């Protein structure tokens, strides 16, 4: 499919694009006067010192209004990061497109692809203002996937390249609850820890199983993967059906499907083959599921901690190690290892509901 930017102009950036997930925000694309994308991006010469130099966004930078070719996207499930909201975009070079591999693997993206992930909080105290903390770029060069991180200034006028890692204090209101966190902006080494596959880095979320959902675009509701095909970002070689993850927040799905979706996005990037926690006896990836044993049900922990007899002890929260780790903020115990300092209360509630629903006996 040859990319038609005139079609892109009319369809993608000519109105209001709304996403349905409560953790994501409304995108307001802006009209473009040019027929080609103004983005300046060369993966062999990146990174720039400032975010604005890429020309991903137009107008006030903090509005994150995408230019032509910078496409908003949304996974079905999102990694918990201390309740930070996220606005995600993807850009590809002209006449380049991704191809399907299988349902549970990341798409095969062409060199020059860049993911633009913005982390921010709404209702930050004391003035209930929105504050963007960081913008993470993950881009594919001829040497593989690389990282570039940009930290926003206090005035929210610019973000500056920094991969050394740092902290910033944030007080905010989320779901009616006032929370405080010392937010961790990751270093390059921490980025690699979560994104590693053997000695390489790879994205986590952009898999068909986690992108196969309808979105409300300006020209109507359309499947997200089909939209990528339509605009020329994805080869039209998808299977007729895709084994799709369940939204962990969807109360109409079964508890087992919801917890599988939650553990897939929050835990599988470490607990999978060739990943950081490959040695541990669980496989949380949605595509690795071989029954409840994959999720740790009746599985002995490799690092026992009293009184937790199993990774998941059916109908016994107090003896399930997974609950202890997800409901903990101490660095030596918490899981995920990186990316959070707060307990994800809603995720822990789902875990408790799932554990108490299990009825089998461990031998």
Automatic annotation (TrEMBL):
- The signal peptide, as residue positions, is 1-19
Question: Which UniProt keyword terms apply here?
Answer: Signal
Name by which UniProt lists this protein: Repeat protein (TIGR03806 family)
Q: Which organism is it from?
A: Olleya marilimosa
């Amino acid at each position: 499919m040859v990319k038609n930017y005139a079609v892109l102009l009319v369809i993608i950036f000519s109105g209001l694009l709304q996403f349905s997930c409560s953790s994501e925000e409304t995108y307001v694309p802006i009209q473009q006067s040019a027929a080609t994308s103004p983005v300046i991006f060369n993966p062999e010469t990146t990174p720039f010192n400032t975010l604005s130099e890429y020309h991903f966004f137009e107008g006030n930078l903090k509005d994150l209004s995408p230019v032509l070719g910078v496409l908003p996207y949304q996974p079905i499930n999102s990694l918990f990061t201390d309740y930070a909201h996220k606005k995600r975009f993807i850009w590809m070079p002209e006449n380049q497109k991704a191809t399907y591999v299988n349902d549970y693997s990341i798409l095969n993206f062409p060199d020059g692809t860049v993911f633009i992930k913005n982390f921010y909080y709404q209702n930050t105290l004391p003035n209930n203002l929105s504050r963007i903390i960081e913008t993470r770029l993950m881009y594919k060069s001829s040497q593989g996937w690389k990282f570039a991180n940009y930290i926003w200034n206090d005035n929210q006028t610019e973000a500056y390249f920094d991969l050394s890692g740092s902290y910033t204090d944030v007080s905010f209101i989320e779901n009616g609850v006032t929370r405080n966190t010392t937010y961790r902006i990751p270093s390059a080494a921490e980025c690699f820890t979560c994104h590693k596959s053997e000695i390489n880095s790879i994205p986590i979320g952009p898999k068909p199983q986690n992108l196969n959902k309808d979105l409300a675009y300006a020209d109507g509701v359309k499947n997200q993967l089909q939209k990528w095909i339509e605009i020329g970002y994805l080869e039209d070689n998808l299977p007729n059906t895709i084994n799709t993850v369940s939204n962990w927040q969807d109360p109409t799905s079964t508890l087992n499907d919801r917890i599988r979706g939650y553990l897939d996005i929050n835990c599988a990037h470490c607990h999978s083959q060739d990943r950081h926690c490959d040695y541990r006896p669980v496989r949380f990836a949605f595509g690795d599921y071989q029954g409840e044993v994959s999720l740790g049900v009746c599985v002995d922990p490799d690092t026992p901690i009293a009184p937790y007899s199993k990774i998941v002890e059916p109908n016994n929260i107090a003896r399930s190690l997974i609950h202890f780790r997800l409901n903990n903020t101490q660095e030596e115990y918490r899981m995920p290892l990186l990316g959070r300092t707060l307990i994800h209360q809603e995720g822990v509630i789902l875990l408790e509901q799932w554990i108490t629903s299990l009825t089998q006996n461990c031998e």
